[in-house]
C-alpha cells in the first residue's frame, strides 16, 4: 500500500515522517508533502473557511497530490480532501484525519466512491481539558485581568466579581457534552472536590458523576458551565438567552469547543447586563476577532485566540496515534 501524507505548519514534514514510521514498519510506502502557508494565521484562516463552509471552500495546490496517483491512503490534518483531490487519486481506499473532526473531508463524495474515512478521536483531548480547567481558574480568580493590570503598573483589586470571588472546590460544575474531553475535565476537577453534573443525550450514567435529563436543569444548578458538545444543526446556538436567564447571577461559562454552541450576541448581553458573573471563551464566530468586537470592551471575560488544543504533545503524538488506530482497523 502507498500512503500520501500532507503535513502543515502544526504537524510539519519531519514530525509527520517520524509519526508515521509504524506504517512504514508494516510495509506501507509513505510519502510526505508539505502544505505551505506564510504564517500560522494564514493556515488558521484556511481552516476556518473549511470548518464554516466545508471541504470545497479551499483549493489544495495540485502539486501536493498529483504526483501520488498510486496512493491508497491519504493522511491529513488540516488540508482539505475534496472532490478534486479524490478524483485525482483513482486508487484511493482510505482517508485518515489527524484530529477528531472530519470537516475538511468531503465525506459524502468519499463514501460514494467506496472510500473509508478514519479520524483520530481524542488526539488533543488532554490539551483541551487542561486548558479548560485553566480558564476556569483564570476567570474566577481574575488571573488574566490582574496580570494585565500589573503589567501596566496598576495594583488592581477592583474586579467584577470582587465580592464573590470563589474557590472552585465544592462548587457544582456543569458539563454540556460528556465525551472524552469532558470526562477528562471531570476527572481533573474531581481532585478539587467539585460536584460534576453533565448533560449528554448519547452518554449513559457514569459512576462518580451525575447525569441530568435536561439542559435547563444543568444551567440552573451549575456554578461553572463548560461546553464540550459537537457543533451540528442540533447544537447550533445550544446556549442562548433562555439559558442565560436560568443561570445564577454568579455563574461563569467556559467554551473551548465550537463557537456556534453559544449565541454570541446573547452571551455578550448577559455579560454586559450582569446576568451572569463571567465567561472564558477560546473560540469565536469571527476569527481573528474584528477590531470592533464587543468582546474587547467587556471586563468580565477572559478571551484567548483559539489555542486550547495547540500543544506540542498533541500535534507530535497524533500521527503515531493515527498509525496505531489505522493498522488495527484494517487488520
TrEMBL record:
Span of domain D-isomer specific 2-hydroxyacid dehydrogenase NAD-binding: 133-308
Keywords (A to Z) from UniProt: NAD, Oxidoreductase
One MF term in the entry's GO annotations: oxidoreductase activity, acting on the CH-OH group of donors, NAD or NADP as acceptor
CDD domains the record matches: 2-Hacid_dh_10 (cd12171)
Pfam families documented for this protein: 2-Hacid_dh_C
Keyword Ribosomal protein assigned: no
Family statement: Belongs to the D-isomer specific 2-hydroxyacid dehydrogenase family.
Stated name of the protein: 2-hydroxyacid dehydrogenase
Organism placement in taxonomy: Bacteria, Pseudomonadati, Pseudomonadota, Gammaproteobacteria, Enterobacterales
